[in-house]
Amino acid sequence: MCTCITYENGDFYFGRNLDLEYAFGEKVVITPRNYRFSFRKLPQMEHHYAMIGMAAVAGDYPLYAEAVNEKGLGIAGLNFPGNAYYREEQPQKDNVTPYELIPWLLGQCASVKEAEALLERANLLNIPFAVTMPLAPLHWMLADREKCLVAEATESGVHLYENPYGVLTNNPPFPYYQMHLRNYLHLSSGSPDCRFAKELDLSPYGQGMGAAGLPGDFSPASRFVKAAFLKWNSQAPKEELPNVTQFFHILDGVAMVRGAVMTPEGKADITTYSCCVNADRGIYYYKTYENSQIQAVGMGNENLDGCQLKICELETQQQINWKN
Fold first, then answer.
1. Does the reported pTM lie above 0.85?
2. Catalytic annotation, pick one of 2, 4, 148, 275
3. Active-site annotation holds for 2
């Protein structure tokens, strides 16, 4: 259960809520240009674009949930159970595992257009990172300032979809959302006119009634609609702090509160963390479920020509600013 959005208001931003019932050892990880990426079926990548994102690090390998590279390209993987389909190795294809996809694309692509060309010949392999770490069923959102794309590997092949909304959640496949959003074209952030009957003098009795019917549940389809509505009706000054604050407010609108969504196993889904990346400046902002204070890690504050991962532990203890 996740929600990913883009946001452009002067600078370009990319981020997401990651919704799970458990932590996965996540840390903010900067991969410098000369870290050596090894791939199962593709040549090693010894020199590449630097990137920053949230990852679990296993055997000194960053397993990114989402990341943005120094050129401003962002990619996030979101849960896609029952639809994601990974294959055996295929000749004449670029055979890449799902856990390698983010570094493989971000390492060599400066734009969505370049990544799209690679994805058109990609085959997503059914090879996990380790026997004890099964592959997550995912689809991906890729975005830069110019374009947004959804990539889905299903039983019928790898499909790429233009995403003009700049929003992605989970199931079902993306073509459903392209139709589903039309069910809400009557919503408005303004005050509604009476369309019930022209003979009746009906008027709003409170603010916000133009969005009556906006979904509020936590299903993927409802989060998609609500996130899109909040994003496309957003207003903020074109400054860094207002933009970052606004971005997190949008994500808060579709975040999960512990106990509101229970898994079949009886565990509570929560928004483990929310992140907002200024893709122009390489700044990764985040907050966690237990700590709502926004933290920041700047990619430009590190030696990006290095060869070792920079790993930043999360600040998960709630920080309260006492005033007396």
1. yes
2. 2
3. yes
